Amino acid sequence: MSPARRTARKGPETPKPWVRENAWPRIPKRERAAMEAYCHGYMAFLSTAKTEREAFDAALAEARRTGFVDLADRARTTAPLRPGDRVLRGCQGKTLFAAVIGKRSLEEGLCIVGGHTDVPRLDAKPCPLYQDSELALFDTHYYGGIKKYQWVALPLAVHGIVVRRDGSTAPVVLGEDPRDPVFVITDLLPHLGKDQAAKTLAEGITGENLNVLVGSWPVDKRAGNRDAKEKVKANILTLLHQRYGMAEEDFASADLEFVPAGPAREVGFDRSMILGYGHDDRVCAYAALRALLDLDEPPEHTAVVLLCDKEEIGSVGATGMDSTFFENSVAEMVALEGQSGSTADLALRRCLERSCMLSADVNVLHDPNYPEVSSPNNTARMNAGVVLAKYTGSRGKSHSSEARAEFMAEVRQVFDEAGVIWQVGELGKVDAGGGGTIAMFLARYGMDVVDCGVGLLSMHAPWEVAGKLDTYMAYKAYRAFLRHARPGTAPANPG
Q1: Among 172, 357, 416, 462, which residue's CB has the most CB atoms within a 10 Å radius?
Q2: Does pLDDT of 460 surpass 70?
Q3: pLDDT the model gives residue 368
Q4: What sign results for the dihedral spanned by CA atoms 315, 316, 318, 323?
């Protein structure tokens, strides 16, 4: 039944003015403790899961702890899926699909919340280590949309893995423990920076200047490679071999990412905000995962959470949303429901088309330091609730997915009935720029999709700011949607 028909039965209501305002006074005291506990759990996750691999591993561990089993293992039992079953599927240790089976058949559609866990960063190049002027440095290639000048003179940590020639692996995390060394990209002093200061922000620091300082100590004379011409580089290689058992050629099979060093912190005298690396989009990914794990009974429709990789560079590749991983994962569930052959193919297509989704990604907040890029009535505000964005894209809504009005009304009703504080917003002024999410990759199946996430200040900076209230409301919103959304309501014959 549509929201309009429900309202009609109750009789007309007096319209109330809708004001986007700070919602702290609307949070009951009894709920503030739950909000604080949730935010501190999220901060712990954000402080340790700084790469897409680490986020995947943390999510996988939590899912298994709460009863999720791999779809492949579930298939070996030959028993059909039952309401309440918890299943998951991973892709290359970077993208996760998890579902709680609902009471209705898969063919009637899924309730999906999908976010991403990749974050702008600096990746070590395949041959990163070199020596120049008696200093050892790592050559990097930045990933995603960054302002390069923000990454200089900043303490950095390195996270990742090294896969040695024999196939064995070594995890790498250095720079997070207070006793660890950190790394840094040097900047030019202002006394000699006249020419640099005359350049634009985009030109002042180039991608090829993002070279990370990693050492200055020449190899010990007693070491076996004391005759090396580049003695500082030789010493770094010796240390890497001692710590990780790696040789220089092992860089070719390593994923090493330089990220801001240090934990997430509370912001403000009132501790009302969170400063952290990777809010975009782990603030939504964590909320989606927690919402799914906290389902305490089988939902009406199967609830699905997607935690994707590669969103920051267009959702490409095997672990991106533009791959067939999601579709294949749903097909595995359809098979476990008992469908096969052409019947299974039709059931899969019906399932995808009748599903509905929240594309769980962050949005922009009005920043009083930069009011010129805000659309006064359509830019979200700090701590005014989770942000619903009917469309994203840039300028003429290019490369966006736009939700239909009927679906917006359904989502509003789900949120209101669950006590979710929400607001609407879009990504700044029309001609100021824009951005996209994974929404369009799910919308191509014909399902209803709308963007819904936490507003941020300093998005894509090494350290971003999120409001605690907004952070908690994302969790409440996703939990309500997974429990109560009604897929399959799109008209079969529009018009």
Answers
A1: 357
A2: yes
A3: 94
A4: positive
Choose among 179, 421, 306, 223: nearest CA to 236: 223
Strands (E), 52-110: 69-70, 86-91, 95-100
121-260 has CATH 2.30.250.10 classification = yes
Q: Are strands 273-276 and 86-91 parallel, antiparallel or unpaired?
A: unpaired
Res. 338 pLDDT band, cuts 50 70 90: confident
List beta partners, residue 456. 364, 466
Rounded mean pLDDT, 28-52? 96
Out of 162-176, 191-205, 385-399, which region has the weakest mean confidence (pLDDT)? Answer: 385-399
Pick the CATH number of 3-12+19-119+277-484 from 3.30.70.20, 3.40.630.10, 2.60.120.10, 3.40.50.10800: 3.40.630.10
> How many C-alpha atoms does 41 have within 13 Å on its Cβ side?
16
Contacts of 37 (CB under 8 A, 6+ apart): none
Domain ranges (residues) in the chain: 3-12+19-119+277-484, 121-260
Q: pTM for the complete prediction?
A: 0.93
